[in-house]
Write a structure and sequence with these properties.
11 helices, serine-type endopeptidase inhibitor activity, Serpin family protein, globular, single chain, Antithrombin, Chain I, domain 2, alpha+beta, Serpin_fam, 2 domains, about 30% strand, 17 strands, Serpin_CS
Length: about 450
């Protein structure tokens, strides 16, 4: 049976030419995440609407709309995401210093790729990603993305300018124009991920392709991640790059007063102390929880549907807390920070960027075949023999200050002012800690990180 042509009618290169490249053709997977705190107002936007991708110049796309998400599928996907989060944290935290990554961004990029995998390659990816039924997983990712993006918007405030939450999730594939990509593959990405295939020329114009991909990701992350692909990553053997970009920007519901910020000691280790700008606030109605060897404070963003949870280990117990997160207990920890409390909080400001190649981490977690010459991605295309993953690149940018992400006051606290919190606690974050950006309803880990040195 003849292979269906894609919607641009691309016929691909001759089989003889493909055979000459067969043992080296590669695809790249990129995950980007940016959490920024600049003061300019940005509204929510998304590149995930079905019809738009089909009309963009240079896009190969199935002529189908993105499906409406089924909320019943979200819990299963969040469980899978927590499974991946623990595994990635176990691998990435082995290196010292600050750490930030977006489990959500990585999961979406890999899930798109999984739809092109077959055989043992697919089985290994399912194990790492926590996928039981692929169709349900696709539907759950779709529903979760739509639910999370729906939390963005403009919030009116009494006596103050409206507050804006920006949450931009965008997916794209950059495929070589010489290859005919499977219609089924393209339709799945359009229906469940709102993603189209943007055509580039890796064979003859590799640097132009790199510039195009970096430009797309820079735009989607509002220039917080200007270059996801450094020189030398792409070459004439690259056939496909998959990208997920996630950008989040929001003001605190309980903003810190900048006039109260002062230099205070932060103990990077038992023998290493540095003074860092430390924010202080009395947070009435903040979420609080504690467990064996740790305490958690939930800091809501305006609107109350998104939050950052700060996880502070007891002195000498940082390694134990990291083991709990790596062991898949993050959701349990986040779920404890629900007690209505008056929290006297001292928290350092921080801003850093981390970059990681996830190939070794994902191989260690159990999907080595996808990176090998034995990989099977024939559900993407049957034209390119031995197509395999050459790299999985991830960057995250995180910046936290007194305003959160916008200099604006909160409104939802009024609902909690009628009675005094039952718990009063003091939390001084003066040693390495973890943070998680998540939605409140599903506790989806959008960003996870470790602050070992706020000055780095």
């Amino acid at each position: 049976m003849a292979r269906p042509r894609n919607h641009l009618g691309l016929t691909g290169v001759p089989r003889t030419m493909l055979n000459g490249l067969a043992r080296r053709d590669v695809l790249k997977i990129l995950g980007l995440a940016a959490l920024a705190t600049s003061s300019s107002a940005l509204v929510a936007c998304s590149d995930n609407s079905g019809p738009a991708i089909a009309t963009d110049p240079g896009v190969v796309a199935a002529q189908v709309d993105r499906e409406a998400g089924d909320p019943k599928l979200i819990p299963g996907v969040v469980d899978a995401l927590n499974h991946l989060t623990g595994g990635l944290y176990a691998q990435l935290s082995s290196q010292p210093g600050n750490l930030a990554f977006s489990p959500y961004s990585v999961a979406v990029a890999l899930s798109m790729t999984r739809n092109g995998a077959a055989g043992k390659t697919a089985e290994e990816m399912d194990q790492v990603l926590g996928i039981g039924d692929l169709a349900a997983h696709n539907g759950g990712i779709n529903a979760l993305t739509q639910a999370v993006e729906g939390l963005a918007g403009t919030f009116e405030q009494e006596g103050a300018d409206p507050a804006v939450i920006a949450l931009d999730s965008a997916n794209a594939l950059f495929g070589d124009g010489s290859v005919t990509w499977s219609d089924d593959f393209l339709e799945t990405l359009a229906r469940s991920y709102g993603a189209g295939m943007r055509t580039v020329d890796y064979i003859g114009h590799t640097e132009d392709a790199r510039t195009k991909i970096n430009g797309w990701t820079a735009e989607r992350t509002h220039d917080k991640i200007p270059e996801i692909i450094p020189e030398g990553v792409l070459d004439e053997l690259t056939r496909l790059v998959l990208v997920n970009a996630l950008y989040f920007k929001a003001p605190w519901q309980f903003p810190f007063q900048e006039t109260l910020t002062s230099d205070r000691p932060f103990h990077r280790s038992a023998s290493d102390t540095v003074d860092v700008p430390t924010m202080v606030a009395s947070l009435e109605g903040a979420g609080y929880g504690e467990g064996e060897g740790w305490r958690a404070v939930r800091l809501p963003y305006v609107g109350g549907t998104l939050a950052m949870s700060v996880l502070l280990p007891d002195e000498g117990a940082f390694g134990d807390l990291e083991q709990k997160v790596a062991g898949g207990q993050l959701a349990v920890i986040l779920g404890t920070a629900v007690t209505d409390a008056m929290v006297e909080l001292s928290l350092p400001r921080w801003k850093f960027r981390t970059e990681a190649s996830l190939k070794d981490a994902l191989t260690a977690l159990g999907m080595p075949i996808a990176f090998s010459l034995d990989a099977d991605f024939t559900d993407m295309t049957d034209e390119v023999a031995d197509l395999h993953i050459g790299a999985v690149l991830h960057q995250a940018f995180v910046a936290v200050d007194e305003r959160g992400t916008e200099a604006a006051a909160a409104t939802a606290v009024v609902m909690q002012d009628e009675s005094a919190p039952a718990v009063r606690v003091e939390v001084v974050v003066d040693r390495p800690f973890l943070f998680v950006i998540h939605d409140v309803e599903h506790l989806t880990p959008l960003f996870v990180g470790r602050v070992a040195d706020p000055t780095a």
